[in-house]
Amino acid sequence: MFRIGIVGSDNSHADAFSKLINIPDENGNYRYPDCRVTAIFGLEKERTEEVATNGKIDYIAEKVEDLYDKVDAVMIVFRHGGLHAQYAMPFLERGIPVWLDKPFTISNEDCKMVMEASKKYNTILTGGSTCKFAYDVLMVKNARENPEAARIGKIRSAMMNFPATLVNDYGGIYFYSGHLAEMAATAFGYDMKSVMATENNGDVVAVLKYDNYQVVLNFLAEAAQNTVLVIGDKGVMYRELDISFVYRLGVDEFVNTLRTGVIPVSHEKLYKTVALLNAVKESYETGKEVAICGIND
Q: CA 70 to CA 78: how far, in whole Å?
């Protein structure tokens, strides 16, 4: 049995993940018979107790250190991504597998630090936005990777939008825009070269450049729908992005990683999405096109 700890209780993901793992279906069957969320640590006492009650988590830690010998893996889900690296490091150093929720980290430096620790201590590190596993995103990915079979042919241009706010208590643009960054990278490729972004009235529009096409990313404070439009040389694909079940898909991937030791997305790719967001921010703040670096750059 994998004993999983939740670190951070302010996020709705703490509820969602613990319920998926700990609450059986109407027939009494557990989705993951070999996993339970057995412990939680949070910075807000009442909220942590609420998550523990809702998710049937037996143990509430007063200090995060109390989890070290009580769990076999952790899901770090603070709303503020700036907290992720500091809480991940002690677990990585102890060989305890870590899921870092979105945003994986805020700074490129934090991202490199946890990834270097994962390599040094041979500890599983994975996570990020569960939205990248959405079926609509994977449909675009399949169309890109199989242009001969895709009705739209080779991609010439595309556009994707998703919610993001620039002003909040959880890191500004980083709080929610990680979803769009990871969905775009999954759908259109992690080999993006640069980005040119502008901000107007709280919304950010970024033009993501690849070798053979460009993708417009709309980080919008308000939008009626979350969508992706792909224009090919033979046709057009339009999808509404259904994210209603991505929590389940994300936890599926984490549990599979615990079982097999195989992470769903490489560290190099995860790093590229962190670097993408930092490049977007730098671009709309400076008005310049910004190159998107890789983990070894």
A: 20
